[in-house]
Amino acid sequence: MNKPQQLRELLSQAVPHLxxxxxxxxxxxxxxxxxxxAAKGNLSYEYQFSCxxxxxxxxxxxxxxxxxxxxxxxxxxxxxxxxxxxxANGFKFRAELINHTTxxxxxxxxxxxxxxxxxxxxxLTAEHLPEPQFDEAGNYTLYINQDLTPWPPTA
Length: 155
Prior knowledge:
Elements: H1 3-14, H2 16-20, E1 25-35, E2 45-58, H3 63-76, H4 79-82, H5 84-89, E3 91-97, E4 103-120, E5 123-128, E6 141-144, E7 147-150
Antiparallel strand pairs: 1-2, 2-4, 3-4, 4-5, 6-7
Helix pairs in contact: 1-3
Protein name: Phage tail protein
Pfam families: P2_Phage_GpR (PF06891)
């Protein structure tokens, strides 16, 4: 899995508290599932898991954690922002107020990672696929049965 490490790197760089106190950042993976269909002998699969981010003894505002994560989600797990069903439960948090100045914050993200497994010369290779990037203008290249179809359709 790559996304938990990406989040660690992002937060370690973007959040001053974590730059100065890296020991305050803890990341866990829970409730993991492997989704594989084995269609026609294909070994490709998808990780589905909860990524738990815990920041301890935090003195800054929670916004300084939430905003970088939202920016990361926009490209790395965009359906958590754009899909109302996933948005409702895909990004959760809770906090424990330790005293007047510090708290522990726990953030839970429902993440997926697609892995393409291919065979070449008798060797299996696993490749972690990037999230699909969509052109905001709606200009896509659409193939149906290997035939190029203009998209969006013209009248």
